[in-house]
Design brief:
Blueprint lengths: L11 H8 L3 H15 L4 E11 L28 H13 L4 E6 L6 H16 L3 E5 L5 H9 L4 E3 L9 H4 L5 H13 L3 E3 L2 E3 L5 H12 L7 E6 L16 H14 L4 E4 L8 H9 L4 E3 L12 H11 L2 E2 L2 H28 L1
Parallel strand pairs: 1-2, 1-9, 1-10, 2-3, 3-4, 4-5, 6-7, 7-8, 8-9
Helix pairs in contact: 1-8, 2-9, 3-4, 8-9, 9-10
The structure holds S-adenosylmethionine, 6-(5-methyl-2-OXO-imidazolidin-4-yl)-hexanoic acid and iron/sulfur cluster (SF4).
Length: 346
């Protein structure tokens, strides 16, 4: 296949047709696209830290941290900066290149944002990439984060616009898109994906991916989470998703967004090694590393190191990451030049 042309005009039917392919054909296509754009044996690893836990005013039906659900969660106020630095340097020592900080807020106040900015600066000073997920932002807040040097903002669409109301009532799908626009306008890298296994249909999964791929620019990072079922949340007890459907979704994401990092996100503790290997085969090339996600468990770092060894996969190092980004942006420049040339000839 020649250099991939990034599309932003996918229909839901076209995406569903990819989902409907025979499994082997879908994986072959995804792996082919993956190899055209990335080293297939390198995975980028990020470590997460919950910097403010619980008592959230939103009612997301999957989340342990909503004040509206009765979950067994230890709440915590915004952490002091030194605790964050300690966690980030431990993560760096274990090989993580990006440190992601998550806060259980509907949106940050300006005062809290300044405290998070202190954390971003301190983590940067350790030589790590930074990512934060703080809920909805205003335009000036996004600008402030850009000035502070933030690398990535995570804000998930979570599910399709059609299914959204079944999961969350305290904010709209449009609210999510608005924050993503503010982040993109500031040229902060966008990390946005969703959760599978909440009782949505394949059509919903296709619809969520259509929203992501048809954004004016593909998110640089697309986390695909498997629902972690938390007792006390409204969604707890929902039928589990067929693991092959999860792998299919990773493959379709890879085909739709060839130059994006596709992150095998929450839910790995419930996946066996074979399933994770198939996710990498389907084009996942990023994951969370370290024994904790935000409030739930992730596999032990040692287990991931062992798995990578068995699969011949290596951690993507920070300098390679920058090289890949440079390569991607030069590819993007070449593609834009080609498209511009073609438009002039037409
Ligand atoms: N409060 C902010 C927000 O919602 O944007 C940031 C933190 S929130 C916990 C970040 C993301 O984690 C959510 O958008 C959701 O996609 C994911 N998440 C939360 N709980 C989850 C669960 N139980 N299983 C899988 N993913 C989950
Ligand atoms: C994302 O898509 N997944 C991460 C991160 N972005 C912030 C969060 C997963 C949370 C899983 C449930 C928990 O640990 O509370
Ligand atoms: Fe709050 Fe985020 Fe959890 Fe929703 S997902 S309840 S906004 S912490």
């Amino acid at each position: 296949m020649s250099e991939s042309k990034l599309r932003h005009d996918w229909s839901r039917d076209e995406i569903e047709a990819l989902f409907d392919l025979p499994f082997n054909d879908l994986l072959f296509q995804a792996q082919t696209v993956h190899r055209e754009n990335f080293d297939p044996n390198k995975v980028q690893v990020s470590t997460l830290l919950s910097i403010k836990t619980g008592s959230c005013s939103e009612d997301c039906g999957y989340c342990s941290q909503s004040a509206k659900h009765n979950t067994d969660l230890e709440k915590e106020k915004l952490l002091p900066v030194d605790e964050v630095i300690k966690a980030a340097s431990e993560a760096k020592d274990k090989g993580a290149t990006r440190f992601c900080m998550g806060a259980a807020w509907r949106n940050p106040t300006d005062k809290n944002l300044e405290r998070v900015i202190e954390m971003i600066t301190a983590v940067h000073d350790l030589g790590m990439e930074t990512c934060v997920t703080l809920g909805m932002l205003t335009e000036p807040q996004a600008k402030r984060l850009k000035e502070a040097g933030l690398d990535y903002y995570n804000h998930n669409l979570d599910t399709s616009p059609e299914f959204y109301g079944n999961v969350i009532s305290t904010r709209t799908f449009q609210d999510r898109l608005e924050t993503l626009k503010y982040v993109r306008d500031q040229e902060i890298n966008v990390c946005s994906g969703g959760i599978l296994g909440m009782g949505e249909s394949r059509r919903d999964r296709a619809s969520m991916l259509r929203e992501l791929v048809n954004l004016p620019k593909h998110p640089e990072s697309v986390p695909i989470n498997m629902l972690v079922q938390v007792e006390g949340t409204p969604i707890f007890g929902v039928d589990e998703l067929d693991p092959f459907e999860f792998i299919r979704t990773i493959a379709v994401t890879r085909i739709l967004m060839p130059e994006s990092y596709v992150r095998l996100s929450a839910g790995r503790t419930e996946m066996n090694d074979q399933m994770q290997a198939l996710c990498f085969m389907a084009g996942a090339n990023s994951m969370f590393y370290g024994e904790r996600l935000l409030t739930t468990d992730n596999p032990e770092a040692d287990a991931d190191v062992k798995l990578f060894k068995r699969l011949g996969i290596e951690f993507e190092a920070a300098n390679e990451l920058q090289a890949t980004e440079k390569e991607c942006s030069s590819k993007r420049e070449r593609r834009l030049a080609e498209e511009f040339g073609a438009a002039q000839q037409a």
